[in-house]
């Protein structure tokens, strides 16, 4: 990421600090958790750091393993952690800057760490768990290019994996081969934080059916929910594959899901709520008699994380804006028989949505 991109994001963060009457904000990266917001603001992608942004300074604290990396990746002032804990080191910087009201992410901090924060630095800690997600929600053009590249690599890897798949391959083997193909393509691999979903036969009725040793059998189908990560950004795709022959029931259901996704995409526009878009797809599925079998929301935002704002669901109160990137993934799941889902990623522009994942056809693939 360019240092100029960091400057623009820091300027927006500082605008939020002023609006919220905060002197600064502290972000913690521990054991690789919460690296997404750190890289978004600073460019740094190590697994341990404290980022402190005040109205005048930006500081990155890390240990000796990452000093060279931090200085090369980030324009922040890099401070060596030394023998101190991250919280202790951050507290010293907070006292040096004489900050009094500091935002933090309660959703990303354990109770033990919060107690250390209170003990080491008795400032007024203000939970602003929503601050970075809101800043990260609207994607810049360079972010969109990375998501689009992730989608292209995912499409190619999926088709290559299908080319060698067949009856007798296990769900786990398919997932592992797909992950390998992604890495060979130049992607970082899959999502990292989540396993791919590969669910065959009756197991396809599990919306989050992680791969097992179950083997693909003729006359069945399997559902694959997968994606690539490229330079930190992810895509999220779901496709269905028949083994040998295409079950007419599954074929008709697949056509319904594609129609529901198309209708939702037409409703995807600036100014509508995520709930309204969900309602469009859900109505078609309900009219076909499968309403109770659509057991999850229609979609979610993606970016540096697999699940980001905004929500596209019956509880999705977010009003959609230009620059939002969301999934649309209608699905139907029937216990004992199986299920299907069709998922694609869309970027919302002022003139309407674009399907980022268009490189991969939405057809019901068939292994011969």
From TrEMBL:
Pfam entry (one): Creatinase_N
Ranges where the Creatinase N-terminal domain occurs: 9-138
Record keyword Transmembrane present: no
Keyword flag Hydrolase: yes
Gene Ontology molecular function, alphabetical: hydrolase activity; metal ion binding
Domain Peptidase M24: 146-348
Xref: Gene3D superfamilies: Creatinase/methionine aminopeptidase superfamily, Creatinase/prolidase N-terminal domain
Keyword annotations: Hydrolase, Metal-binding
UniProt similarity note: Belongs to the peptidase M24B family.
PANTHER family in alphabetical order: AMINOPEPTIDASE, AMINOPEPTIDASE YPDF
Protein name (record): Peptidase M24
Natural source organism: Aminomonas paucivorans DSM 12260
